[in-house]
Design a protein that fits this description.
Blueprint: H1 13-26, H2 38-45, H3 49-61, E1 65-68, E2 72-75, H4 80-104, H5 107-122, H6 129-147, H7 150-170, H8 174-192, H9 196-223
Antiparallel strand pairs: 1-2
Helix pairs in contact: 1-3, 2-3, 4-6, 4-7, 4-9, 5-6, 5-8, 6-7, 7-9, 8-9
């Protein structure tokens, strides 16, 4: 388990521990079903068990951790219901983001989008899923920034963190990665010509394909 805690003078210790564990779950360093042993985590992070216990309680409220009778805390499984809830919200916000980006995106941002699209293409055969996920995030971040709407960007960033667990699942399949690269290219072209209807259509396809790929991956893992 690779856990790295970054101290923050403005945050109480329990919040630093919570952020560390939350990030590890979202990035897949702590895997679904993995038990969270208070003593082991306290030793790993160099803290007492109290902030670990408080962080686990908060993670349970977020739905990232479940308490099992007589077994203690474990990382929550990724469920189809959770995925569908997140993607319903994402679809609505992405629609608004793409409409605004089509109107407001700058030539510099379009060039940046092209660079990130090419970077993803170069990584397509890589097994470094974290790096692939980060480049995918980078692509969408440029579109969000192009909306020039701080409140929308803030909401999308919050949702992006919840999407991280699912994005790693999505990127496991190399055929899916190739399809994703094609979708990125189509979105880029639509934004460059300010073709709102095409851009919206491509984003819907992008999210629907993501949903199908993650559900397929989850079902395959259940069968193993």
């Amino acid at each position: 388990m690779d856990l790295e805690m970054h101290m923050d003078e403005y945050l109480p210790l329990r919040d630093v521990v919570f952020n560390t564990l939350r990030k590890a779950i979202l990035k897949g360093d702590l895997k679904p079903g993995e038990r969270l042993m208070e003593i082991a985590l306290a030793e790993k992070l160099g803290v007492s068990r109290t902030p670990i216990r408080e962080a686990i309680r908060k993670l349970e409220l977020e739905g990232l951790v479940v308490m099992a009778p007589r077994k203690g805390a474990k990382v929550a499984s990724i469920t189809e219901r959770d995925l569908n809830d997140v993607l319903e919200v994402r679809k609505g916000m992405e629609e608004l983001a793409i409409r605004l980006a089509c109107e407001r995106i700058t030539p510099e941002q379009l060039d940046e989008l092209d660079k990130v699209e090419k970077k993803f293409l170069n990584l397509i055969d890589s097994e470094n899923l974290t790096e692939l996920a980060e480049v995918d995030v980078e692509f969408h971040d440029i579109i969000y920034a192009a909306t020039n709407n701080k409140r929308l960007i803030q909401l999308l960033n919050n949702l992006r963190e919840q999407m991280y667990r699912y994005r790693i699942e999505y990127l496991k399949d190399s055929a899916v990665r190739r399809q994703l690269a094609k979708e990125h290219k189509s979105i880029c072209e639509a934004l460059r010509t300010h073709d709102k209807e095409s851009a919206l259509r491509y984003v819907y396809v992008h999210i629907d394909n993501q949903q199908k790929a993650i559900i397929r991956s989850l079902n395959e893992e259940k069968e193993e």
